[in-house]
Amino acid sequence: MLTHSGILGGASNYWVLSAGGVLASFDMNFADGSYFGKQLSDLSITSTSPSTDLLYTTAAGASYNSFSAGQLRLTPGVGYLHEETRTNNLLNSTAPATQTTGSLATGTYVLWVNGTGSASVAAGSATITGGGSATNGSFVTFVVTVAGTVTVTKTGSLNAFQLENGAFPTSLIVTAGVKLTRNRDTVNFPQTFGAAYTGYARFTPYIPASVSAEYEILNFDDAGSNRATLARGTAGTLKGALAGGTGVSIFAADALTPNTSNRGIFSVAAGSQAISQNGETVVTGSAAVLPGTPTEVTIGSLVGATGAFNGYIERIAGWANVAVSSANIPSVGSRLISGMLEVPNGASVGPIDGVTYVAGNADDVTSTTVASWAMAHGVNPSTGGSLDRFEVRPGDYPPPGSALKERAEFSQSNLLANGTTVWVAYSVYLFQSAIDGNCTVGQYHPTQGVGDTVEGTNLYMAVFNGTLRFDKQTSTEVPLVDFPAPTQLFFNTPPAGQWIKFVHQINVDPNGVTSLWKVWENGTLIINSTAAMGFANSPGNHWKFGLYRNTIGGNSVAWYANMEFGTSDLSARIAAPLALPLDTPY
Known about the structure:
The protein has 586 residues and is mostly beta strands. It folds into three domains: 21-45 and 185-331, Jelly Rolls; 88-182; 341-575, Jelly Rolls (Sandwich). 2% of the residues lie in helices and 44% in strands. It has three helices and 48 strands. Strands 3, 4, 8, 9, 21, 26, 27, 28 and 30 form a nine-stranded antiparallel β-sheet that branches. The longest helix is centred in the C-terminal third of the chain and has 5 residues, at 432-436. It is globular, with a radius of gyration of 28 Å. It starts with a helix and ends in an 11-residue tail after the last helix.
């Protein structure tokens, strides 16, 4: 199953893809800026035109990035934008005005806009079919059957517009007094390969399903005619092809989804090839003789190739000496174990053992959308209980500059009063990245009372400087205006890459009459405290779990299994915890 190098050793590279226990030779995550085996400085970039990343789907008036010739087109959080050669036939494209184009050759064209207004196209001296009015997020196509001019009429407020050759839009080409062509980039780097190898890519294609053309995503090639190619085939499915040797083309079972992140993998060995997209059915080939040994990796399309990929390439990886087996292929690059679903910020999760949680931050769930990697929820196939994955990357929710901290967290939606005895049982799997990340990994949190000006936490588990701490806070102040110093009850060094089983028995009482916090770790009682705990002015308390940290840089990952919370006695879980999932977390 899929693992990460945080388990294998080398915590700083825990995120690097591996398959069957073998680490990728290179792993370049253009979306989040993580690079292993190869760096951006290793890339050879041939880019002869200025460009942008403003798309027809970009919100009206939104800012965008501009790139000079020779610059890799990286959009933070999204990836590398690769596109075919296109020409914008409209002048002064960032100050739209009604105009008649120069003569257009016969062929298909697309018109799109950014702004709250619209633009329509009509024949001038050309003969056309199709056309209509384009609005933000909705483009129109037309076919020039007799060469000539067309007139584009602007209505309302527009920030940009583009009329380009092709059946679908690409990014904005900024023009002034003349039309301008944006040439396709060529991006590659040298790589030593063996007799078997595997390529992986996560990518978002812009090509509509109706377009019957092939677009190359990733090539392992010899700078000549010999190559292994991962491509979007003419039928809209993922294609793996060998050019040279016996030659073969194999196609994944299902069509790629346009404007959606897809992942694909193509493994190559003499007599055995395999391809899969999005972890689905593995399709095999049997070319006996391979092409000449690759010497480089080309991203997007080969020099001189006609089928340049159009869209974002989020991540590429390669095993230069290993053909990943069909058994391991489906899990490579998966963010989730089968059956898990990504959870958006503010969504209700559960019920998990009868409890409904809110994803993100219960105090402010509307300020931004959590990135797709942040939270995922599913079922532990070993027990039918919960299985949850949390990942925090720099700048994740809450956004930079917020008084809140970076988090990916589930927060119980209902409140339990002080003096209520609750039980919590679960297992947690911490990557070294979470241990190094100074993360809070579980809290029984009070809700602020009327007049409170500060906020504390009844009790929490957090990793600081490599140790797992168990701290409590308490105050009888009404309202709460003085932040109480935490009291540390226990700490130890948590193991990275192992499931840790916990059971808590909790009763919050700031007066110390009924207060209780017992914690069992892997069946051993590590805390047995009856000291005062909690806040007199709080109207109620709720359980929170996930990752919550200061902005420190790097990514942090943790998993939780079999989360149980409530007033029912869970002491049986001390000696007999629920079974853990067989899949290895990543």
